[in-house]
Amino acid sequence: AEAELHAGCVARALNVLDRAVTLLPREHNLWARYVRVLEAAGRPETARRVFERWLTWRPGAGAYEAYAAMEVRLGEPERQAAILERRLEAFPTDAAVLVVARFYEKRDDVRRARKAYEKGAGMFVTLTKQDLETDQTSEGKWARTLVIRATSGKGMIVRQSGSNVLLSPREEEK
Q1: pLDDT above 70: residue 139
Q2: What is the DSSP string of 35-102?
């Protein structure tokens, strides 16, 4: 495919890449190259179809991130949001919760940001305010607490320690 691209034969390169991902579907670098070439060639709809094919092979979170990044470049925030939500479903991690919630916070979409945090609260152990105040372990002392305020004045307490994020509804504002 690279030789075809250097020769200026984009159609041939795309043909080679399509055959390559068909024969070697678990070679994720081939899929990534394929969608980059499609996007560069001005074929975003085809790139989306290829991304969807790629996702059927259950690649890592990086595939979802690349897909979302493409939608950013194409100016499609709603598509980006849908892909980030799918990434959260496929890889329910603390980092995925925060990426989705922060995406909505940046767009002042409080309702959807709260929904993302609530989804995270359902995935992880819920702490109470008292747990945070009385945690005397070295981990508890090291952990940091953030308050995410929504327009209603209520928010979530997010406690991050290492790779773990624990969420709980905020009981009252001080």
Answers
A1: no
A2: HHHHHHTT-HHHHHHHHHHHHTT---HHHHHHHHHHHHHTT-HHHHHHHHHHHHHHS--HHHHHHHHH
